[in-house]
Fold this protein.
Amino acid sequence: MIDVLIALRFVLAAAWRQSRPRMFAAFSLLLVGSVSGPLTALGLKHITNDALRGHSSAAVAAAIVTAALMVLSLTAGGVAHHLYFRVSEELQVWFDIQLAELSNATTSLAHFDSDGFADRMELVRQDSNLMWNSLEQILGTLANLTAIVTAAVLLARTEPLLLLLPLFAIPPLVGGRWATRYVERIRIEQAEAIRRSRHLFALAIDPEAGKELRLFGLTGEVRRRQEELWEQTTDRLVHANLVSSVFVLGGQLLFAAGYLGAVYLIVHQAIEGHRSAGTVVLVVALASQVNQQVGAVVATAAQLQRVARAVERLRWLRALVAETEPAAARASVPQRIERGIVLRDVAFRYPGASEDALAGVDLELPPGAVVALVGENGAGKTTLVKLLCRFYDPTSGQIDIDGTPLGDLDPVEWRQRIAAGFQDFQRYELLLRENVGVGELPLLDDDDAIAEALREADAVELAESLADGLETQLGTNWANGVDLSGGQWQKLAIGRALIRPQPLLLVLDEPTAALDAHAEHALFERYAASTRAAGAASGAISVFTSHRFSTVRMADLILVLDGGRIAERGSHAELIALDGIYAELFSVQEAAYR
Amino acid sequence: MLETFVDRKRLVLARDLRVTGLGALAPALLVSVLAGALPVGFVVATSVMIGALPAAIRDGSGSHGAHRAYVALALAAASFALRQALVPIQTLTIVRLARRFDGWARGRFMDAAFAPRSIAPLEDPTAREAATMSGQALQGWWFSPGDAAAANISVAARYAGAIAMAIPIGILFAWWAAVWLLASGLVLRSIFRHGFGRVVAREEQGFRHLRLAWYFRQLGLGSAAAKEIRIFALVPWLAARYRAAMDDFMALQWSARWRSFIAPWLAGSIVAAGVLAVVFVSVARGAAHGDVSLGTLALVLQSGFAVLTVASWYPEADIQTAYGGQNYGQLLVLEEAIAAAGDTSGSLDPGSRPERELRFENVSFSYPGSERPVLAGLDLTIPARRSLAIVGLNGAGKTTLVKLLAGLYEPTGGRITCDGTDLREFDRAAWQRRVAAIFQDFRRYELPLRENVAFGALQLVHDDDAIRRALERSGGSDLLASLPGGLETPLSTAYAGGTDLSGGQWQRVAIARALIAVDGGASVLVLDEPTANLDVRAEAQFFERFLETTRDVTSILISHRFSTVRRADRIVVLEHGRVVEDGTHEELVRLGGRYAEMFELQAARFAAGAEVEE
């Protein structure tokens, strides 16, 4: 109950901030609507009594007022509805932006990798769909409660005993809650089936899957499995609804008994001569109104519970962010790197993992160095890159940037001096310009800067081959969107990484996996030239990972990772002379070119 | 006015409700209409009770009048309780109906999407948009066709209730009052629906904005782009773009709401208030003059407004019919667009072909909606049971060539033949089964390892040996051994006991899928960049095995890594949509053309190393 109240306050306060005039108008209209409903019952009483006494003109006046009140109660709600509909949309935008800020705010990406976090984040994301009509639920409930209280006051004026009536609203509320819980439980039990049938269904829309499904003759199988899962879930959900309707039914019948008892009491008193016929009309009219309103409150109670949980999760995320947000920066990021980056006995273990991804890493990266990370899948290359970007803080040990611990720097400021391209780069289904420009937002409209980045990424021809040039819409999401090949997307990701001026750290994680020989060669020629230039200008250090030894050898320093440790280090010539892992892997690839 | 009540989509929806079957439809309709009409019983009974009161009060308890009042109260109680009991049952029948309908609509959607054997029709812009909209709704992200279909039943219940309420007014008081009330209620309702319909239609126009907004929202909320968002500090930008797109959408919508909705509705409400006032005044006057009985007065007062509430907002139905109906309309659009795009298939059984060769004859191709030719006058002969490697720059058309060969697209010019027969003469589905291909963007099925492999040849799904063999050949044996649930381990952490695989591990699973397809009868094997995610040792091992396992198969390999390409029986270089070089590795190196140049580029880096050491 407390959680619902907290959520109520939270949503109303947020909505109020979005649009005061609209909220004020919507609230006033709802109030007018919900009070005028019960008042019409009072009107009916007066019409009846005046008519029975033969007071024609009084009855006519009461009739006109009552008719007006009735239509008002109908209209006010309808208009209010549209006012807060608009606020609801704004509320949704606000909530989503909050969520985006929070989920991207924390310094450490570590929690993204723990299972519990991913699941909860997924829930928070789904909650965001709930926000859209949370305001409607809340305002509707408040309106109904106002109407119920107004009705209770009118009834109590007639017969104080009737004040007990609201107690009868408790069984349907409890019954409703049990019912929702039960259905929710079955829904959770069916979560895998629901998810899988959704996955199989989504294959039908996915053009990539479309190719495979046709070639392997899978379309019928996928459709059949999807249908089977859907029907299984339907059966379980319908059954759950059947069981839960028993709870609802019990609650509703108890409520009906209470209300009919009240009507009986008043009718009995009327027959005894203590009540007018008009009073009976009043009680009967209120009875059916309140019945509807209680029904509505019960129906939305479950929704409110969900909103409460959504707000709770948002607050959880806020607390988590506040907790993991680092202390204020104790040092500022240097303008240029004079002494290099030093790692001392650095170890890292992913949350929930049983083994270290990196252990005992001692390293010195001199200013201006081009560093290559080599190793088999899972050796820890990407983890090391992530630590340098400060997506994670080391579990133990320390990373120093020019003598200052990385932990003392403001992470946002540090990241502003990093240029990076990742293995799992994003394909932004936006304009070509934006795919490169988001790498350095201030340069988004700078054609020269974007052209230069495209040149460095060997993507000039690509841009020229597209009819709309930089303004070409990319991505199959859009009707006019152009799709690119894997290698072409990768070139754009590299352009995005290279557009940032004057970085201190340049990171490329498997930058050429999908590139052709020409592009790869061109990229590395330019990469070498520009990183050396940057190194000379600001002491920038570049770090890249690759499985292709032909490109690795150009590095000043090659680090061979094996099982989370640095197994070998040195220049290409030194490592070949060492005749260890590097020399062996190199010869495996080299052999193919002899 | 009539057409606002019954627009085409709703008619089609109502007609298609049949598919849920009488067993689901009849109870839903019956219970809903009964629940809608039962309040009349309560109103009539309580009115009879109130009418009996003066006599009861006059004669005291135990009199005939009192008896009559109590009996009427008992009847009112019965109809009240019955209605209370019906409400949860109504919910149940509606849920069942919606699920049934959606199950059917999902099947229909998949049938439409899977119907064409080529995938070009799916890439038609109209089809693509319609598929996105109705597809999202059918996945439960938005109001679905089933929601709309079931909500129609609720609407019927509302109308039934209003009509039932009007009838006693007509019988006991005056038909003009019944007709006026019902008519003004329905007019008000139609104004409301018409306005809402226009708002929704307007939203359809603004859907472009909304989809853009959703895209930015998903970027900002998802974890896929988490690293880039942090490095490039993208949150404020994403938020601003999201808000701007939503603002565009909302501005469109809000103006539509005010003009076509709120204003006319307010005017309609004033008219309705007038009608209700006239009826109330007339019945109150009649009662005051003794022309109308107390019971009739109570009846009209109670039910007059109830008739008018037919015009109110139905939270259980209005949004559902509007948006669910819209999404249903999109499903129809999808079906029409796919049917219009056409899909041809011959009837010839390809049998065990190719026995001799596959041949591209002057083949040209550009993607639908694009003018740029990807292939231009391509001639290529692929001998059966040999291996062919295709190399070329990014975007040279390598993958496209394979898509044409597999019948996923049709050439825009020229023809492709198999042992002399044009591919178009084959039954397309049967021909596609001859081709086993793993593309760069292979699928990761949220299913156990068993299916992820055996989906290459469904008939082998229970053949553990075949699956193990395929994994062994793709280098996936270690993976299988490392999985706690073996073949039954779901390959996604979203399922109990499931694991997620690394990029390299997935690649091995996908290759196993293609290899088992060959065991299952396919004879053309296509691997598109099969080792992009493998490390050096794994790559070398894979290619050693690859040659053995594919000895009797026509295999086509696309790769940028010349170390792997050179082992193929034959290599072709693709440039500007045609074959520019063709031969064995040695021949092409000797030729000193494009291939030699590209090979040297990669090899030089190794050779340079050798020099340093010398």
Notes: Residues 1-6, 609-614 of chain B have pLDDT under 50 and may be disordered. The first strand of chain B starts at residue 357 and ends at 365. Chain B touches chain A through 186 residues (CB under 8 Å).
